[in-house]
């Protein structure tokens, strides 16, 4: 997630490394680079094994949450209390998993890295288990389980970052709506969207393109009792409920004309204060603060006939990739660094970066609960997680490939090049092809 969005000890033997490489099924990368070239490419990642002083930490956070992460790492480095030296390297979002995979296969992984919980199945064979070192007890149970594979804690949760429905209170007032009555049911959402469309010159609504469009589909479908995949990785959305969800997403643009055809137009208009409502994640609070308009945030329960509405959120997890060269002392430093970020500093990750902290203690801390961020967004996000109205994207093989098979037709539908029925047919065939 643009921030949207757990691991283990010791050596990778030759057999374990090849097993990890096959498990981490980075097919497109392998086709482009060739297995024989991976070692040399790994040397170009900016990290040369264990030669660096201190532990190597790879993160993908940019923007507001990147600034917060940088400040937390700087404080750990500068404090005599922790006796740690952390070399933080920010890897661009689009490059993060390619570089991480290359470093792991090439034998030069970082000591700690950020990983989304949905990616766990692809990397699980090459991550250090932290079950005995940290465990899941300090964390929100539903969030912590995203880092558990076959009973082993392979990743430690830093946060969860669900979707919410942000809304522009100034546009609500102009449309004759009560800005203190959040549009958190389908009826209220429809009432607000229609009022904005009829009484203002603004777009009523905007939503994601790409990967997160597929995750909105998953979220809305789950609320109607459906799912994207079966446990056997078969597509499960070629149903009446699946078609109803895709039809709804189509109608936001082409029937009601609440949302623009071009997502870029919607994003720019939202930041100018010219869109009434927008589905976004926890991270988005830093954006709307800078945009400068008065905003609210509420549950994204917008789908008609959804008896059990939910939000959807991945988690940023911290993992320790396996390495033959890492000393025990370096491993212990990596474990302590993960503990600090996910426990001691976790409430700051909430009130400064906007993500829902994974630590139980952090969610109950006075500093967090008295913060503006708690009042504006995190109290609502926490209520959904604590109230059982939260799901995670499942960790499966071929995550990026199968999700792409869903979002590409959704994006084509938004531009007017596909019908909802064609989206279901095309995406079903693409998902089945991915896993077969």
Structure description:
The strands form 3 sheets. Strands 7, 8, 9, 10, 11, 13 and 14 form a 7-stranded mixed β-sheet that branches. It contains 20 helices and 14 strands. Strand 1, helix 4 and strand 2 form a beta-alpha-beta unit. It is an alpha/beta fold and 436 residues long. Helix content is 46%, strand content 13%.
Short key terms for the protein model shown above:
disordered N terminus; 14 strands; seven-stranded mixed β-sheet; five-stranded mixed β-sheet; alpha/beta; 436 residues
Which whole number gives the mean pLDDT?
Answer: 89
Q: Please identify the structural class as seen in this structure.
A: alpha/beta
Beginning-to-end CA distance, first to last residue: 27 Å
Task: Give the uncertain stretches in residue-range form.
Answer: 1-51
The count of β-strands is 14
Helix % is 40-55%
Overall shape: it is globular
Largest sheet properties: 7 strands, mixed
Number of helices: 20
Radius of gyration from CA coordinates: 22 Å
β-sheet strand percentage: 5-15%
């Amino acid at each position: 997630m643009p921030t949207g969005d757990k691991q283990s000890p010791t050596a990778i033997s030759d057999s374990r490394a090849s097993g990890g490489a096959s498990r981490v099924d980075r097919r497109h990368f392998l086709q482009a680079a060739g297995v024989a070239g991976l070692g040399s490419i790994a040397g170009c990642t900016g990290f040369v094994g264990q030669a660096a002083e201190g532990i190597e930490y790879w993160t993908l956070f940019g923007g507001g949450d990147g600034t917060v992460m940088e400040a937390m790492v700087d404080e750990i480095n500068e404090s005599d209390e922790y006796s740690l030296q952390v070399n933080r390297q920010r890897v661009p979002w689009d490059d993060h998993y390619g570089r991480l995979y290359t470093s792991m296969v090439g034998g030069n992984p970082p000591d700690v890295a950020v990983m989304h919980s949905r990616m766990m199945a692809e990397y699980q064979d090459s991550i250090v288990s932290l079950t005995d070192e940290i465990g899941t007890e300090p964390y929100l149970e539903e969030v912590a389980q995203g880092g558990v594979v076959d009973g082993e804690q392979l990743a430690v949760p830093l946060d969860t970052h669900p979707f919410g429905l942000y809304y522009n209170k100034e546009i609500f007032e102009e449309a004759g709506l009560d800005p203190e009555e959040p549009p958190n049911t389908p009826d209220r959402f429809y009432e607000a969207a229609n009022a904005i469309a009829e009484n203002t010159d603004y777009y009523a609504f905007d939503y994601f393109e790409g990967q997160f469009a597929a995750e909105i589909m998953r979220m809305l479908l789950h609320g109607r009792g459906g799912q994207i995949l079966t446990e056997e990785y078969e597509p499960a959305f070629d149903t009446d409920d699946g078609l109803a969800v895709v039809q709804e997403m189509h109608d936001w643009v082409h029937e009601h004309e609440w949302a623009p055809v071009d997502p870029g137009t919607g994003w720019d208009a939202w930041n100018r204060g010219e869109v009434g409502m927008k589905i976004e994640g926890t991270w988005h609070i830093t954006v709307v603060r800078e945009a400068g308009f008065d905003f609210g945030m509420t549950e994204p329960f917008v789908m008609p006939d959804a008896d059990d509405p939910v939000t959807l959120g991945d988690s940023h997890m911290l993992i320790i990739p396996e390495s033959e060269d890492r000393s025990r002392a370096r491993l212990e430093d990596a474990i302590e660094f993960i503990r600090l970020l996910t426990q001691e500093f976790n409430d700051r990750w909430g009130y400064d970066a906007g993500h829902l902290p994974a630590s139980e203690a952090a969610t109950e801390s006075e500093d967090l609960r008295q913060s503006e961020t708690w009042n504006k967004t995190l109290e609502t996000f926490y209520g959904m997680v604590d109230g059982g109205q939260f799901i995670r994207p499942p960790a499966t093989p071929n995550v990026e490939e199968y999700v792409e098979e869903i979002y590409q037709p959704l994006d084509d539908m938004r531009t007017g090049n596909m019908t909802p029925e064609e989206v279901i047919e095309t995406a079903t065939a693409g998902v089945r092809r991915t896993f077969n």
